[in-house]
Write a structure and sequence with these properties.
single chain, mainly beta, Immunoglobulin-like, L,D-transpeptidase catalytic domain-like, 3 domains, five-stranded mixed β-sheet, 11% helix, 40% strand
């Protein structure tokens, strides 16, 4: 009887083992699950996906046969398969507020095929803010030019925006960004740019979160060149406007500057920048009794209202007395001669006045001491 029971127990144990073996298919059997596995970033069904981060698809225990990400119109997004065929990534940015679809096939190390299906949705901004860049592509400018990025709406997250801005140059000159307002950030070096410097600026703003649901509308770039080093020096009591190139005086023009005793009408102290050139400009100041007064060869160097321009009507005082309302008056021949050499971005350095202009009239970059300028960065 005992022998019979022992035999029965042995028989039951064998049956259990064999049943277990039968229930586990080998990796190479037709019923075994495929070993390869797709991983997609963003994940299938993800929402609010950033548009400026590449889509990545990888496969483990296998290689990719084909993969694609398609936009709502069915057109494929550009992408590149890695040489080892284990990963694929997009090479173009995505669009805001769109549904994209995955499709893909891979072959596992077991020879079995797998598929990738599904999709994701990109974020839809509450607002898209556009940025513009100055100097523009291909422009040649003076040694005091600031690099400017201006936005068509206020920026809440200035640090995020600033991290998207890059300046490189062939002279390895270092500079710093400073926010002049919540819609404008400038970059300049500690001293003037070296002559003939080639500068490249990248503002990778597309997809950057500005805060408050606003995002960057587009990237902007610029490649421009610094021209010769030309500086205008004005010492108001001398009645002379001096032009220096590479530190050497190349011209000295008799001038009449702003009235010495009136703080509202002097040519103020400060380092300014040539902002604009016009062959003729209409001057208006109703407070002082004149409108639409046309003058030639006008070179603006401050948004406070200061120009270097022709004023033959004041010829008797040019070189002798300071009688203007803040501008530098030259006789026509001298105004034309200077105008022809002036370049946007040239510095204009003024001393000798009873008034120093506060740093608030664009472009006032060089009126801010370097140590203070650096504190105006958001990073």
């Amino acid at each position: 009887m005992t022998a019979l029971l022992l035999g029965a127990a042995l028989l039951a144990g064998c049956s259990s083992t064999e049943a277990g073996k039968a229930s586990r298919a080998s990796a190479g059997s037709p019923d075994a699950p495929a070993v390869a596995k797709f991983t997609a970033v963003p994940a299938v069904d993800a929402v609010d996906v950033p548009v400026n981060v590449p889509v990545n698809v990888t496969v483990s225990d296998g290689t990719i046969d084909e993969v694609a990400v398609s936009n709502p119109e069915g057109a494929p997004v550009a992408g590149k398969l890695a040489d080892d065929k284990k990963s694929w990534a997009t090479t173009e940015v995505l669009g805001y507020g769109k549904v994209y679809s995955y499709s893909g096939k891979a072959t596992g190390t077991d020879g079995k095929k797998i598929e990738l299906k599904g999709g994701f949705t990109t974020l839809a901004p509450a607002a898209q803010v556009r940025g513009t860049l100055f100097p523009v592509d291909g422009q040649q400018v003076g040694v005091a030019v600031p690099i400017m990025v201006k936005f068509d709406a206020p920026v809440a997250d200035r640090a995020a925006v600033q991290k998207a801005l890059t300046v490189t140059n062939d002279q390895n000159v270092k500079g710093a960004w400073a926010w002049l307002s919540d819609q404008e950030v400038h970059y300049r070096p500690e001293a003037y740019w070296p002559a003939n410097t080639k500068i490249h600026v990248e503002a990778k703003l597309y997809g950057v979160a500005y805060g408050g649901g606003a995002y960057g509308a587009a990237d902007v770039t610029s490649d421009f060149t610094i021209g010769r080093n030309q500086v205008v020096k004005i010492d108001t009591p001398t009645h002379q406007l001096v032009v220096q190139r590479d530190g050497q005086t190349v011209a000295s023009y008799p001038a009449s500057f702003g009235r010495d005793a009136d703080p509202e009408l002097t040519t103020p102290n400060g380092t300014f920048v040539v902002m604009q050139k016009d062959e003729q400009w209409s001057f208006d100041n109703p407070q002082y009794g004149y409108t639409n007064v046309l003058k030639k060869w006008a070179v603006r160097f401050s948004n406070h209202g200061e120009f270097i321009h022709e004023n033959n009507d004041n010829a008797a005082n040019i070189g002798n007395n300071n009688t203007s309302h803040g501008c530098a008056n030259l006789v026509e021949a001298d105004a034309k001669a200077y105008y022809d050499t002036a370049m946007i971005g040239d510095p204009v350095e003024v001393v000798g006045s009873i008034t120093t202009l506060p740093a608030k009239y664009d472009w006032y970059d060089w009126q801010v001491p370097w140590a203070q300028w650096q504190t105006m960065s958001a990073i």
